[in-house]
Fold this sequence. Notes:
The protein has 85 residues and is mostly helical. The protein has a single domain, classed as Substrate Binding Domain Of Dnak, Chain:A, Domain 2. The protein is built from 4 helices and no strands.
Amino acid sequence: MLNQGKALIKAGSSWRLASHPELHLIEPLRVLRMINYSGWLAKRHEDPAFIKAFPWFNTERYWGEHLLDLKEQFSQLNEPVLRIL
């Protein structure tokens, strides 16, 4: 994930999308996106079309991987903010 953050900063620097005061928001917003996506999936779980499109959702494997991803992301929150050179 760290390489993704560096790539985002590099791309943002060339387009002026990632300004210095906003860099600390990258990782917390990524966590928010991850949690919101799972919530979005959970709200639609009873829809028969959803079950056909997302058969992997709400399985033990999905939640185990989701928790692991969140733990990894939590460790990123404790890392120093990336800087644009």
